[in-house]
Amino acid sequence: MADPVELMRRICLCFPPRLSPTQRSRVPPPQPQCLGVWARLRFPGSALSLRCHALDASKPSAVRGEPSEEYDDDEEPYFSVTSSRLSEVDYLGESTKGDLNVRRRHLDALGGNGKSTLHGPIEEIAWKEARQAETLLSDLGIADPLTAWEGRAYDYGMANLKSMGFLVDDLEFDPDLVIRGLIMDKVKGNLVKADRFGYIKRVMHGTQMLPTRAVSEIYGRELVDLRKEDTWEFLNTLFSVSEAVMFMQMVDKLDQGFVPAELGPLDYKGLYNAVSKALFRAHVEGQLKSEIMAEPERFVEPDPELPLALLDQKEAGKRLLLITNSDYHYTNKMMNHAFNRFLPNDMGWRDLFEMVIVSARKPEFFQISHPLYEVVTEDGLLRPCFKANSGGLYSGGSAQMVEKSLDIHGDEILYVGDHIFTDVSQSKVHLRWRTALICRELEDEFDALIKSHAQKEKLVTLIQQKEIVGDLFNQLRLALQRRTNSRPAQTLAATCMNDQELTESMQKLLIVMQRLDEKIVPLLESDGELFNKRWGWLSRAGLWDKSHLTRQIEKYADIYTSRVSNFLHYTPFMYFRSQEQTLAHDVHSYSRDQ
User: Fold this and answer.
1) Among 237, 296, 498, 501, which one has the highest count of C-beta atoms within 10 angstroms of its own C-beta?
2) CA distance 183 to 549
3) Considering the entire predicted model, what is its pTM?
4) Which pLDDT band, with edges at 50, 70 and 90, does 152 fall under?
5) Is beta strand 232-234 parallel, antiparallel or unpaired with respect to 355-358?
């Protein structure tokens, strides 16, 4: 085994050879996944062990302590420490720059920014440093570490705002401003993206994204708690996108002083209430539904495989129900348009379903028993009834009535819906039904993930290089810290290094990490842009972690997919099992076995 001190000299002083493409591609590409029904999909990745914070060189403190202590030129510490609280950016906590800087005087002595000392592309240098650092760490004994719908809803909502007196003529719908899964802060006038724990990662005030430092100042001690309905409003469905776009645009108007005084003093919460009321009027007055019923082809994208997927299920003995909050006239029009032309042998959509319930009033449908009515004519005439029968068409009722009439209960039922709260969570929490969530945006994200694979691979590779180099740097930093207090380092090799070897080695390793950040930071900032330039991925918050939306899906949906017709790619007898849920220590256990 090579001498650790000699290896250290090689790491810091030798120039790396040019690496082959094979050597550069250490991270295997992810296996493509079928865009079908995914059983509790787990997005791979683990939390990084290092965080990056930009540094404020105007407020340094010496490694040895006392920020204000003065030193002679010969005694001045090589490094300065800057608190992460002073950072302007931390790139979603994923960059690996630490809080330690090489002091400018010593950096200049190495050749400006160190590039004259460390020649060549930083990726090649990093490969050499990472590979040799990995070896040295081993020697040291260190363990290996849908737009039309929202657009028209927006138009009707804005028309209602205008009738209230708001100035909205210069505004238009921007479908890229908002994605599902974001959360409106009705008190501060913000739109936020949170991770699975509720920590806020990105924020937009009005229509402007806020820098990371501002996010930290506003929400540093606050977590998203969806139970606080007076503050937070979760964007559960695509339909809520129009409401969020309206609110964010009107926040700009309020900030700019363009809300007429005659509307009274308004804060952000009052403004949200006005927007919500305007959009609610569009629904209650039936403006949008009337337009959709008149021209369904403008708003409904037919899926020829959907009726066939349900037909397979029915012919396999499954008992299908349609439960909708829409009234009979709207339901009949939409189902005729979307189903009848694709069904064989003159079948109609009603022939697929054992029972149809309209005007269900979800989510109350899952908790409260409402009066049950039978729809007895094509005009929608209702008559009271007390029992639901197979083949019936009903209005109202309750989930308990469905279970009783079909003599099935709990996990014998798979409920499919596209609203996390109204559909999935309520049926799961109150009835223990099995649940499937429909999330159409998955298809766009899946395509974007494939297109961004090369960039993601490059980013992960750079971070892995940085972690290895950083691990060695931290070991030397600890050795220097212990030496300052007259204590030995963790290993004999580090203890035997003199002060000059330690500091010069640390400087050069730190320069490698700082230059790697120049590559890592722009890749982190652009990660997810192919899905949405402002918010990044739907399913992720940062490079590795899950978004709050993904956590809600994981918590309440047994399976989720982009469309019901994906069931057609499986037999109706398929049993979907969840993937193995791994723990942090699982990987280490497997690696020891290997």
Assistant:
1) 237
2) 9
3) 0.72
4) confident
5) unpaired
